[in-house]
Amino acid sequence: MDKLREKLKEVFGFSQFRGNQEVVIQNIMAGKNTFVIMPTGAGKSLCYQLPALLKEGTAIVISPLIALMKNQVDQLNAFGVNAKFLNSTLTKGEITRVKKETLSGEIKLLYVAPESLTKEENISFLKQAKLSFAAIDEAHCISEWGHDFRPEYRRIKSILDEIGNLPLIALTATATPKVQLDIKKNLAMDEADIFLSSFNRKNLYYEVRPKVNVKKQLIRFIKDHKGKSGIIYCLSRKKVEEIANLLKVNDIKAAPYHAGLEPNVRVKNQDNFLNEEIDVIVATIAFGMGIDKPDVRFVIHYDTPKSLEGYYQETGRSGRDGLEGNCILFYRYKDILKLEKFQKDKSVTERENAKLLLDEMSMYSESSVCRRKQLLHYFGEKYDESSCGKTMWCDVCKYPPEKYEGEHYVTLVLQTAKETNERFGLKHLSDVIRGVENQYVKSYKHNELAVFAKGNEENEEFWNSVVRQTLLHHFLEKDLDNIGVLKLTELGKQFLKHPHSITLVKDKDFESLIENEDKEPQIVTSSYDETLFELLKKLRKDVAREKNLPPYVIFQDPSLEEMATVYPTTTEELAKVNGVGMGKISKFGRPFLELIQEYVDENDIITASDVVVKSAVNKSKTKIFIIQQIDRKIDLQEIADAKGLTFSELIDEIENICFSGTKLNLDYYVENMLDPDRQDEVFDYFMNSHSDDISDALSELGEDEYDEEDLRLLRVKFLSDHGN
């Protein structure tokens, strides 16, 4: 275990594992087949990257996207790991070099496209290599029941068997129970240990609104959240342009983002969004964003997504910093029908699969059951709706729908499923209960059953809702071997033997709902003073412009939120705010303190100077020693040796000192490290970049040109000169 943590710190710079990472890695280290289901951003890649470094030989990573492959390899190279990819973008010479390095054991991770894996010469080459295991990334591509099926993925297992008897690691961010089963069957991994992380994003607020007067609703919502970053998803490029123009006409800083734009325009719009020059990006659902902006405060779906998986991934771009994120979906059934029409040229199987995904989307939207409960149920996770609102609400739980006694209705649904031999889906059960004598019902003689027409006083929408809620209460379950079929669970069988009182809720009638502005729900907000927070954000932007710096260099959002919570009016109080050190206070603090003081006086606010907040980095004896030695211009390697630190660990300490606001003068070291022109190139990059991420900097500036440690030290100098 200590060895794992040492390697984690040495290579990736992390002191702790997140979530299930450690148990997954231990399982892989033991040579066991492993199935990992972990949401985007939770650290899936590390689960196979770290074992690959520790195990003897080369790990194969099968990945579906060339861009994703390159990104992973670039990041690993930035960490000093020898990783390469083998795909159609390489020249013959490059392919020969990659194969030679693999056979000599130099490469620890080899990323391979599934198409490259099928080539006979590559299979022959891999048979000769010493391989540690095979990782199959984006494993949901194996399943035709998933939202991103790739036929070539279904050949992976037979090819790997030809190469050798390798342990398998399958990884995916989204997989329903049906897709999970399909992945395991296709890869012959029935005995594999499954590690499933929770899909619950506690800081997100989910709401579905009727798509009525939607443009008016959009403008009102965004103006109510003035200055906050948001993404609006539309179905078509034309609609993206239309909505972006609508927002601009209404004095909202917005820009379009889709694949049809000129690349330089798309990059400019992206950079303006990241640098807070614009507040809202309007994008196509199909194209996606690919932007890891941490402070996106809302994601709005102008049009309905094609699947709950897609919806979950897109809403997940909100609130990545752990702070509030509002997820608003405008829904009407016509959008579902429009999406179905788009499938008309596809094969029968693809059309049926797409329809099932769209049915799930409409069920989610029309239902009055807790949004979280529905989303997590879709991914096979149980959720108690009484927990909704403990951190962030959904619209259903915040504004509870009308409830009714459901014992009779649930009993009738379960009885119908039983009498039809648990071989049918939602629509058929509803038809039998309502007494619909269609050809399908008559062919099975279900019109002769005792349950036939027992519920003919209620309409189709009502019974569809009851069947869905019976599923959510775990009395029915989807048959994973027969798509669309519903079976009784043990809980359902017990309910039939001993029926009991159960509460159901009435669904919204979206087709008849009209906008009622006076009763429009207000979005949940955080506990900080929002007015002061907006004033502080505006001031930060002004200061950033004046200093010609990106806003993140001044103060980050969590620091501003803390200021808007505890109202610091002295330098001592401001220094207690997380992410604020005396260096930042001396450089930027005065206008912020003056603004807070003025706000406190105007609003008669009693400040809570004794509120306990997270302290800034503790300047221990080691840190004081480092600061003193740097002041004396001692060589950094000598400082590291004196404290028994590796050079990388010393840079960790230097970064901690710098990030907490202390100015460090590294000129004496940097001048001997790089010539002035190259230093200027790096400083220009940090000045104009939306992020100070080192892997991004290495990718942009060129890993052959710069060393990671050099860039980290230059970043410290940049922040010390401009931010501290």
Quick structural summary:
This protein is of the alpha/beta class. It has five domains: about 1-195, P-loop containing nucleotide triphosphate hydrolases (Rossmann fold), CATH 3.40.50.300; about 205-400, Rossmann fold (3-Layer(aba) Sandwich), CATH 3.40.50; about 405-505, Arc Repressor Mutant, subunit A, CATH 1.10.10.10; about 530-600, Orthogonal Bundle (DNA polymerase, domain 1); about 620-720, ATP-dependent DNA helicase RecQ (Arc Repressor Mutant, subunit A, Orthogonal Bundle), CATH 1.10.10.1390. It has 34 helices and 17 strands.
Give structural attributes:
single chain; 724 residues; alpha/beta; Rossmann fold; Arc Repressor Mutant, subunit A; 5 domains; 7-stranded parallel β-sheet; 6-stranded parallel β-sheet; 34 helices; 48% helix; globular
The end-to-end distance, rounded to whole angstroms, is 38 Å
The CATH homologous superfamily of the largest domain is termed P-loop containing nucleotide triphosphate hydrolases
What is the number of beta strands? 17
The helix/strand class is: alpha/beta
Question: In the CATH classification, which architecture of the largest domain applies?
Answer: 3-Layer(aba) Sandwich
Number of domains: 5
What is the percentage of strand-forming residues? 5-15%
Output mean pLDDT.
Answer: 84
The helix tally amounts to 34
Shape descriptor:
globular
The percent range for helix content is: 40-55%
Major sheet attributes: 7 strands, parallel
CATH fold description of the largest domain: Rossmann fold
The Rg value, from CA coordinates, equals 29 Å
Task: Output the strand order for the largest sheet.
Answer: 3-4-2-5-6-1-7
CATH first level of the largest domain: which class?
A: Alpha Beta
List unreliable stretches of 5+ residues.
Answer: 513-526, 608-619
